[in-house]
Amino acid sequence: MTDELISIIIPTYNRSEILANISVPSVINQIYKNWELIIIDDGSIDNTREVCVNLMEEDSRIKYYYKENGGQGSARNLGIKIAKGEFVLLLDSDDALLPEMISIMLPRLIAASGDIIKCRKWDFNFFKKIYNFSFFVLNNS
């Protein structure tokens, strides 16, 4: 198993409940544990800040940044600039990762000497255990 730091970036706007109950727990529950989670709040007017402060107190790998509203792309780009990891995983604030996602995809990306790995399909059972997936790797070289 590899041990590279993965920077997971979540841009968000007014999605505090989904962050707290779905997307952030899906990151925390990864089998692969060497990650940092960067949440970029794109000018939320709900309680996103409070929720994220609580999440940071629970797990030091979680980082929260606030910026004026500029759209998802600008929030994602800020997260990429802040990222310290060797690899970046982009996650929308209303999405979740299955627990094995990083531990399955990272070794395949490294083995292929790729720059980008993209999922086409995940098949998982009732217990959310991945049993089949398809992906492709891109190399910019």
Layout of helices and strands, plus pairs?
Blueprint: E1 6-12, H1 16-28, E2 35-42, H2 48-58, E3 62-67, H3 72-82, E4 87-90, H4 101-111, E5 116-124, E6 130-138
Parallel strand pairs: 1-2, 1-4, 2-3
Antiparallel strand pairs: 5-6
Helix pairs in contact: 1-2
Describe this structure in words.
The chain has 141 residues and is α/β, with parallel strands linked by helices. It contains four helices and six strands. The protein has a four-stranded parallel β-sheet with strand order 3-2-1-4, with helices on both faces. A two-stranded antiparallel ribbon has the order 5-6. Helix 1 runs parallel beside helix 2. It is globular, with a radius of gyration of 15 Å. The protein starts with 5 loop residues before the first strand and ends with a strand.
Key structural traits:
141 residues, alpha/beta, Spore Coat Polysaccharide Biosynthesis Protein SpsA, Chain A, four-stranded parallel β-sheet, two-stranded antiparallel sheet, 4 helices, 30% strand, globular
Shape, per Cα inertia axes: globular
**Number of DSSP strand runs:** 6
What is the share of helical residues? Answer: 25-40%
The structural class is: alpha/beta
CATH class: Alpha Beta
Query: Cα distance, first to last residue?
Result: 25 Å
CATH superfamily: Spore Coat Polysaccharide Biosynthesis Protein SpsA, Chain A
Q: What name does the CATH topology carry? A: Spore Coat Polysaccharide Biosynthesis Protein SpsA, Chain A
Task: Tell me which CATH architecture applies here.
Answer: Alpha-Beta Complex
Q: Write the element-wise H/E pattern from the N-terminal end onward.
A: EHEHEHEHEE
How many domains? The number is: 1
Which strand order do you get reading across the main beta sheet?
A: 3-2-1-4
Radius of gyration: 15 Å
pLDDT under 50 segments (min length 5)? none
Largest sheet: 4 strands, parallel
Q: Which percent band covers the strand fraction?
A: 25-35%
Mean pLDDT: 87
Total helix count? 4
